[in-house]
């Protein structure tokens, strides 16, 4: 299953099901690290309130992630499914799995 437009990049692979969410190509903000104290959260929230909104030029702390799902068939059968992110120096593989040939 490949989906998008949830704004959050995601990956889950268990047994016979792999779900890939490529997110959406939009400006995103990074939350503080897990366990950050109140002072860090207050500073982050203040920064978010000053951030440029939709329709304006992007600015800190906003960033854009260019993610996609890549499905490559294999001659030996099956396929490789990868969640990739584009960077100036090429594609970075965030997660991947091998999909077997399904019996029909």
Please describe what this structure looks like.
The structure is a single chain. With 104 residues, this protein is mainly beta. It has one domain. The chain is built from one helix and eight strands; from the N terminus they run E-E-E-E-H-E-E-E-E. The strands form three sheets. The chain has a three-stranded mixed beta sheet with strand order 1-3-2, with no helix packed on it. The chain starts with a strand and ends in a 5-residue tail after the last strand. The mean pLDDT is 78.
> Which regions have little confidence, pLDDT < 50, spanning 5+ residues?
none
Helix and strand composition category: mainly beta
Rounded radius of gyration (Å): 18 Å
The overall pLDDT, averaged over residues, is 78
> Which descriptor suits the 3D outline?
elongated
What is the CA-CA span between the terminal residues? 18 Å
N-to-C SSE series?
EEEEHEEEE
The proportion of strand residues reads 35-45%
Please state how the strands of the largest beta sheet are arranged side by side: 1-3-2
What is the domain tally? Answer: 1
The helix content is 10-25%
DSSP E strands, number = 8
List key phrases describing it.
3-stranded antiparallel beta sheet; mainly beta; 12% helix; elongated; 3-stranded mixed beta sheet; 104 residues; single chain; 1 helix; 44% strand
């Amino acid at each position: 299953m490949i989906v998008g437009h949830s704004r959050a990049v995601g990956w889950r692979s268990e047994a016979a099901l792999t779900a890939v969410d490529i997110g959406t190509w939009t400006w995103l903000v990074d939350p503080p690290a897990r366990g950050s104290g109140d002072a860090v959260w207050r500073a982050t929230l203040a920064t978010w309130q000053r951030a440029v909104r939709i329709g304006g030029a992007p600015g800190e702390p906003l960033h854009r992630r260019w993610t996609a799902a890549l499905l490559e068939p294999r001659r030996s059968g099956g396929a490789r499914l990868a969640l990739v992110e584009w960077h100036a120096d090429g594609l970075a593989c965030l997660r991947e799995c091998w999909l077997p040939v399904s019996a029909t």
